[in-house]
DNA sequence: GTAGGGTTAG
């Protein structure tokens, strides 16, 4: 007897639907594991269109696809589907959802909302939330979360330890990191190579490369991975230890490891400095051999490497060769021009970037701002300020700080003050920008006032802040105040003075006429004095007409920078002012034999976006006559000099 | 068959 179709159909139908969902699930899973998250989402959509209900296994896979895409839009779409599903409260579904939002950088609102509503929190959920806070730099909240986790009696595992290590390195707190390290040993996860790799990276980020090395050397050879090598190489790169990075790379190849994209990327980072071009080129060629150089992030790093190695032409032609330029590609190239003070090329590329439909972000803007500060382009600087406002970038403190610095360097204290008082958050960088702005523009009293107010607000000065106040003292000739600050820096704040700080102190002594003391100070410095310090002493000798100490300083300068013209000129002036004409003649001979040429000094100013360059006694500007009239009315130029120019018929 | 994780340019 034939069964009627109507009784058998629903069962068959349900069975076939079940098997179709199962096969769709494996399709989704495979797509995700093979690195095609977008394909997984297409399958998911097809499922819905065919009336197939995703089950409890579908959602974790789909969530994983969303984490790989880091797209908030996709995540929210999936979230809506999940809400309608009977499996919404499943712990794995919830964990997947949480992780999805963490990866979209939606930690504080979306991810925490999911976490907060979870009934049963597994260790994975805690870890995901912890990582999320750490990656979003919400370190306080991460610490609170860890405490809560302990109170809840959840036992930390290896992933927790990794999250805590990243937390400690984010805070640059090596003490905290050591206690995380101890926790790792106590719970027995120190043999886990992933944990060790995190420690290597974390110690180097805290500035303790020797501890990174210790962890690296303790890893069992059987479990050592490429990531371990990469972490160690990155550590060296960040510490500026290019030679050590290269040595590690050599050992890595010797040990039979195949470098990957990340190896090349990090290695290039260690050669992004002058005099490292040869090694950079070597690694570039390795990258080509390994097939890494079609990757846009490697290309971007290469552009950066070439420009930092002062080979801007190679950087530009490499940039031009990139087919799929990203925002970072543009920014790196704009930054290359900006760092060498080439504002015009930087701006041109910035407009090209916008024309190409790429959105500049805060890093792009910060580069442009700093270029304006370097060349004193107040007009452009103001324009970028308003551009930053229109793009909502000025709310970021880093942008505001860059603007403060730019206004100070352009000598516009009013713009700087206005901005400073409008900021609702001020970091040590903001204060330091203000202080050094006043120091630079000769308003030493105001610089010191700001310094005191800053101290009262509870902020701790760093070595750059101290440099700024010391410069203020130099400009005002405040010898005692300078020494007091210098001692406060070394004794109270335990900051070791760098070359610049020592230069200030030597300058302070020299300008006061204490040339012998200045010389003694330089000779007893714990670090080798550079050309800047000797130049400061030489110019002090010029003020106080001391040819003997001047000769000594000049001698060092001729050794350090034989091609620089300034020391020869300074020394010749000192001889002339003390009537030692034989000395003047000997300097002339020395300049000739060393083939040193003195180019006249230049000064550039921008008005209405146009650059004007002037030299001493410049007669080429069309409005020169007017300029000299104004100068004479200010008492900066004598009437007689203007008449001389007139008679020469230059105007 | 299901989670959370290690290196990553400006």
TrEMBL record:
PPR repeats at which positions? 20-54, 122-156, 225-259, 326-360, 396-426, 427-461
Pfam families membership: E_motif, PPR, PPR_2, PPR_3
* Keywords recorded for this protein, A-Z: Repeat
InterPro entries linked to this entry: E_motif (IPR046848), PPR_At4g14850-like_plant (IPR046960), PPR_rpt (IPR002885), TPR-like_helical_dom_sf (IPR011990)
- A Gene Ontology MF term for this entry? RNA binding
Return the Gene3D superfamilies for the record.
Tetratricopeptide repeat domain
The protein's name: Pentatricopeptide repeat-containing protein At4g19191, mitochondrial-like
Recorded name of the encoding gene: LOC113699580
């Amino acid at each position: 007897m034939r069964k009627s179709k109507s009784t058998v159909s629903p069962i068959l139908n349900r069975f076939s639907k079940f098997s179709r969902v199962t096969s769709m699930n494996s399709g989704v899973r495979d797509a995700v594991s093979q690195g095609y998250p977008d394909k997984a989402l297409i399958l998911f959509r097809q499922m819905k269109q065919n009336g197939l209900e995703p089950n409890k296994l579908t959602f974790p896979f789909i969530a994983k696809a969303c984490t790989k895409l880091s797209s908030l839009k996709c995540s929210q779409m999936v979230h809506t589907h999940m809400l309608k599903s009977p499996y919404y409260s499943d712990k794995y579904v919830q964990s997947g959802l949480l992780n999805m939002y963490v990866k979209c950088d939606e930690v504080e609102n979306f991810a925490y909302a999911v976490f907060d509503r979870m009934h049963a929190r597994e260790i994975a959920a805690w870890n995901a939330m912890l990582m999320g806070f750490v990656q979003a730099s919400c370190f306080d909240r991460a610490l609170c979360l860890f405490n809560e986790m302990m109170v809840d009696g959840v036992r930390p595992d290896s992933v927790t330890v990794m999250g805590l290590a990243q937390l400690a390195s984010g805070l640059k707190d090596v003490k905290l990191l050591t206690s995380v390290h101890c926790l790792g040993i106590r719970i027995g996860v120190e043999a886990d190579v992933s944990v060790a790799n995190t420690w290597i990276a974390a110690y180097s980020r805290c500035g303790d490369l020797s501890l990174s090395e210790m962890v690296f050397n303790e890893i069992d050879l059987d479990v050592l991975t490429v990531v371990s090598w990469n972490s160690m190489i990155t550590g060296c790169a960040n510490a500026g230890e290019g030679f050590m990075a290269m040595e590690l790379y050599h050992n890595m190849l010797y040990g039979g490891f195949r470098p990957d994209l990340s190896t090349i990327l990090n290695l290039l980072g260690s050669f992004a400095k002058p005099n490292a071009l040869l090694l950079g080129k070597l690694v570039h060629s390795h990258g080509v051999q390994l097939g890494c150089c079609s990757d846009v992030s490697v290309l971007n790093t290469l552009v950066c490497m070439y420009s930092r190695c002062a080979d801007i032409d190679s950087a530009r032609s490499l940039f031009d060769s990139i087919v799929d330029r990203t925002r970072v590609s543009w920014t790196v190239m704009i930054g290359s021009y900006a760092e060498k003070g080439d504002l015009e090329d930087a701006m041109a590329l910035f407009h090209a970037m916008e024309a190409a439909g790429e959105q500049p972000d805060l890093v792009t803007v910060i580069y442009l701002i700093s270029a304006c500060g370097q060349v004193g382009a107040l007009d452009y600087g103001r324009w970028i300020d308003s551009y930053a406002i229109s793009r909502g970038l000025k709310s970021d403190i880093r942008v505001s700080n860059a603007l403060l610095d730019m206004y100070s360097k352009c000598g516009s204290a009013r713009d700087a003050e206005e901005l400073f008082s409008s900021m609702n958050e001020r970091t040590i960088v903001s204060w330091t920008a203000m202080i050094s702005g006043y120091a630079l523009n000769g308003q030493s009293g105001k610089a010191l006032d700001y310094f005191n107010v800053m101290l009262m607000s509870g902020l701790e000065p760093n070595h750059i802040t101290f440099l700024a106040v010391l410069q203020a003292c130099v400009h005002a000739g405040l010898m005692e105040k300078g020494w007091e600050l210098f001692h406060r820096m070394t004794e109270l704040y335990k900051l070791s003075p760098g070359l610049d700080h020592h230069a200030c102190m030597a300058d302070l002594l020299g300008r006061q006429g204490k040339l012998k003391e200045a010389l003694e100070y330089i000779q007893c410095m714990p670090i080798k004095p550079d050309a800047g310090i000797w130049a400061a002493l030489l110019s002090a000798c010029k003020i106080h007409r001391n040819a003997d100490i001047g000769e000594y300083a000049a001698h060092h300068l001729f050794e350090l920078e034989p091609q620089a013209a300034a020391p020869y000129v300074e020394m010749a002036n000192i001889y002339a002012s003390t009537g030692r004409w034989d000395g003047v003649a000997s300097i002339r001979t020395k300049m000739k034999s060393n083939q040193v040429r003195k180019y006249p000094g230049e000064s550039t100013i921008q008005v209405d976006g146009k650059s004007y360059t002037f030299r001493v006694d410049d007669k080429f500007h069309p409005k020169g006559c007017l300029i000299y009239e104004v100068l004479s009315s200010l008492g900066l130029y004598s009437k007689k000099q203007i008449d001389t120019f007139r008679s020469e018929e230059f105007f």
